[in-house]
Amino acid sequence: MSKAKIEVTRAYEFDDGNISINLEINDVTIYGASIVKGKNGRFVSFPSYKKDGKYWNHAYFRLDDDDTAEILDQAGDLLAGKDRKRSRR
């Protein structure tokens, strides 16, 4: 199985430390994903809506630990202004 091509194209950090991101995964853009601080560390949360007390994802992609680490690194680089070649859409 080949490795997914993942790129963070936008990152914005809120005052509470959570981060809103846009991702391109295998040439499909997912808008409005988040990096959230959880009790076991940061994780990627895909866009969702609440219906009948449950949250339902609009989009989903299974991420392994390496994928999550890559997303966190790319988002951190964008927020720090280290990677000027990525857009800040």
Quick gist of this model?
The chain has about 90 residues and is of the alpha+beta class. The chain has a single domain, classed as Arylsulfatase, C-terminal domain.
Topology overview:
Elements lengths: L5 E8 L5 E7 L2 E11 L2 E5 L2 E4 L2 E4 L7 H16 L9
Antiparallel strand pairs: 1-2, 2-3, 3-4, 5-6
Structure description:
This protein is of the alpha+beta class and 89 residues long. The chain has a single domain, classed as 2-Layer Sandwich (Arylsulfatase, C-terminal domain). Helix content is 18%, strand content 44%. The chain contains one helix and six strands. The protein has one helix at residues 65-80; strands spanning 6-13, 19-25, 28-38, 41-45, 48-51, 54-57. The longest helix is centred in the last third of the chain and has 16 residues, at 65-80. The protein is globular, with a radius of gyration of 13 Å. The termini are far apart. The model is unreliable at 84-89 (pLDDT under 50).
